Amino acid sequence: MRLAVMVEGQEDVTWEDWVELAATAERLGFDALLRSDHYGSVDGDTTRGSLDAWSTICGLAATTSTLRLGALVSPATFRHPSVLAKSAVTADHISGGRIEVGIGTGWHEAEHRAYGFPFPSMKIRMDRLAEQLEIVAGSWAPGPFSFGGEHYRVEDLDALPKPVQDPLPLLMGGSAAPRGAALAARFASEYNVVHQTPADAEAARERIAAACADAGRDPGTMTFSLMHGFLIGADEDDLRERGERLATRTGMPVEQLRSDWLSGTPEQFAARLREYEAAGVERVMLQHHLVDDHAALEIIAAAVVPALA
Asked: What is the pLDDT of residues 188-201, one digit of tens each?
């Protein structure tokens, strides 16, 4: 099982935070550093700021050398697909081929209103996502292509340069509902579920496998991953202290964090991850809400990763 660090960048994460966090994650050998793509706090705190996701990723691509980087996920409502495709290719070239691109429908209505992005019905957002996937994938593929849809149109487009990676990994996520699962089977290299139990994750994985089979694709070519909040401590005292800090940051009671999140001492944490591994989860994106708490990442690298080997 691979472990990545995932950060909710819209909750006042500064550039200095990003640089230090990326250096720590790279030094400790984490698989990737991924960030959300939001322009405003999703916790409702209007005093928290957010740097642009793809500008941040491009910057980190130049300050790191081995760490994979990406967005989980970029809303189809924020950018024209040609802009997203070009931003991702630019980051892929800066990084030397270490970028992953997550794409979704967009869901946070308040930030759309605040920033002036249209927020249509879910059906229309899914329609737009489907067309974006066609154009992004076509932009990265060899040679020119044209596409005409209800929302987007490109003509004889041969977007150069192409990505360093072939293919450039594209991530999708959600509940593995029929339409989303079918789109993932066509376009995605990885499918991600959020805050699910091992049993629910296994059921979602089975739906994705079925969608791949229906599309004539080997289900084994689709990586299945989980994004989950986490709370870890070297011992019970450390766990309690970090839980109190996380409760202050997130507004969630410590008891809820310990019951609902990946939580515990290293032995307990590793045991929980093994449950997900048995359910078919191949990679876990650990939501790191205390971005300046590098000690938590040190514990995982030193005590959890060896236990999973």
From this structure: 999 999 999 999 99
